[in-house]
Amino acid sequence: LDCGTRQRATFDDSSPRAYLAFAPDAQSNLYFSVSQGFRSGGFNSPYAEELGAPATYGPENVTSYELGSKLQRADGRLYAEFALFRSDYSDMQGYGLIPGALVEVVSNVGEAEIEGFEWTLDWRPRERLRLGFNGSVIDATIVAVNALNTAYLPGDPVDQVADYGWSVFADYAFPWRGGRQGYLRGG
To answer: Tell me: the pLDDT tens digits for 151-161?
Structure first.
């Protein structure tokens, strides 16, 4: 389908990362990382442009910080990971509508902060039995809005980021006929 409009733009970035780790013993690791990320900009529809929306929207950038630990105990039968994290978004991409036209556009709506804690616990009480529990608690908030045609306000939650999440599982491995391994898992 050719709508007669060709849109071109270049979006590029380099995304560096620094990582520092310390192992106080053979079964523990403490780490800190800082990284930058990038999501490419893109194009709004030619129809939206005819109604006054910008033809393109810019890249979204993020700087993330993470402090965490990974460790094993009880002869490897207990494994745990814990992490605190923070991400600062600039030029966050968001959706909006052109007033009176019900035409969706993407624009760089502003800034957001995401902070949280996540964990994983994995325990093997028996040789073939494994139990696990993992989860997260997250505060994801829009802190500044720099766009006109958007429904976002400072203090709003970031779309599609749950405040918390968790899961549990159990799995059991067992020998099967002919030397094959069987496996049963529930979560």
So the answer is: 788 889 988 88
Q: What does the DSSP 8-state code read for residue 122? A: E
pLDDT tens-digit profile of 44-72?
887 777 777 778 888 999 999 999 999 99
Q: Tell me the average pLDDT of the chain.
A: 88
Mean pLDDT of 168-175: 93
Question: Which alpha helices (H) appear in the chain, and where do they start and end?
Answer: 46-50
Contact 31, 67 (CB under 8 A): yes
Residue found under tokens 């829009």 = 142
**What's the whole-number mean pLDDT along residues 24-40?**
94
Rounded Cα distance between 10 and 50, Å, is: 22
Q: Identify the H or E element spanning 99.
A: none
Q: Which residues contact 92 (CB under 8 A, 6 or more apart)?
A: 60, 108, 109, 110, 111, 112, 142, 158
Please choose, from the candidates 76, 81, 87, the residue with its C-alpha nearest in 3D space to the C-alpha of residue 31: 81
What pTM does this model have?
0.78
Instruction: Tell me how far apart the terminal alpha carbons of the chain are, to the nearest angstrom.
Output: 46
User: CA gyration radius for the chain?
Assistant: 23
Nearest 5°: the CA angle 97, 42, 161 is 65
3-state class (DSSP) for residue 3: coil
Residue 163 is which amino acid? Answer: D
Dihedral in degrees, nearest 10, Cα atoms 52, 154, 163, 15: 70
